[in-house]
Amino acid sequence: MTDTSTAWPVGLRGVTESIVTTHGPNDRWNAAALGLHAPDPHPGQKSDHTSDNKNVDSTQDSSKSYDSGTTAVKTSTEAKSGAESTNRSIITATTWGNTRTRRNFHREGGGVIQFVSDPRAFVAAATTIYEVDEPVLDTAHAWAEVTAERLEQGERGGTQWEQWAIQPVETGVIDRTVPTINRGFAAVIDATVAASRLNVASYDTDTLLDRLRYFAETVDRCGGPREQAAFAQLDSVTEWRSQVDEPEAIPVFDE
User: Fold this and answer.
1) Any residues with CB less than 8 A from the CB of 41 and at least 6 apart, and which?
2) Is 21 helix (H, G, I), strand (E, B) or coil?
3) Which of 19, 34, 39, 91 shows a CA-CA span of 20 to 30 A to 101?
């Protein structure tokens, strides 16, 4: 049974990693990783324009959360009343480059946010062209149908970005789980960020490869079968190991 509402189904703070499905021109739903930026609790400090499955990063303070059971503090129209209020009153996300998510946001005006705990689903969304027939993934614990309204656009490191106001229209909780902390899971998520930045001119490749090596070692020590399978999928898609010295010294996993 799914409990529905018009409020966010989970608490959001800092940057919450999600998967967004957007309806494409081929009548299928494209799934991609998307970082949801909560309102900045320290409005006097500048925050970075980052998110999406490329260049996921943030300088936002996560000491306060945007609780579930609330709606956006202001509408996107109200947020536009002053440039300084743009990033502080609503949930935002940023798309990088001419991605399917960006194009579908422009064409459809929104999508469906998914909150998942399966690292394999996240790797597929972050690193591959992942299309499904239905808007809600089988792996989703909760979802939110949202509108996406463009707030700002710009360029960073030669890549065009667009920032969007993300507003829930209808949300649902499919199942409630007891939260656990697993370093292997966290390493998989961070590895998708590092892998997405490979061959991007504004990032140092050697630094990224060192991070991926460390994340592989963390998954080997701390991850379970799902985390190891997810990392194996990341290996297959990105082929990052071919760029490192002594790849045989890095743990290898089976999908």
Assistant:
1) 61, 63, 64
2) strand
3) 39
Question: Does the domain made of 183-243 have the CATH classification 1.20.58?
Answer: yes
CB 168 within 8 A of CB 145: yes
Q: Do domains 3-173 and 183-243 have the same CATH topology?
A: no
Contacts of 65 (CB under 8 A, 6+ apart): 11, 12, 13, 38
Q: What Å distances lie between residue 129 and 27, 164, 188, 197, CA to CA?
A: 15, 22, 18, 17
Domain ranges, ordered by start, for the chain: 3-173, 183-243
148 is written with which tokens? 């996406």
Q: What is the pLDDT of residue 52?
A: 54
What does the alpha-carbon distance between residue 77 and residue 81 come to, in Å, rounded to a whole number?
A: 7
Query: For the structural domain made of 3-173, what CATH number should be given?
Result: 2.30.110.10
Q: CA angle at residue 100 from 253 to 137, to 5 degrees?
A: 55
Give the other-Cβ count within 10 Å of 78's Cβ. Answer: 13
Residues of the chain with pLDDT under 50: 46-51, 55-87
Cα→Cα distances 128→124, 157, 214, Å: 5, 22, 22
Q: What is the pLDDT of residue 4?
A: 74
Q: How is residue 63 written in tokens?
A: 């000491």
SS (H, E, C) 153-191: EEEECCEEEEEEEEEEEEEEECCCCCCCCCHHHHHHHHH
Contact (Cβ atoms closer than 8 angstroms) between residue 97 and residue 54: yes
Please work out, in degrees rounded to the nearest 5, the angle formed at the alpha carbon of residue 34 by the alpha carbons of 28 and 40.
145
How far apart are alpha carbons 80 and 151 in whole angstroms?
Answer: 8
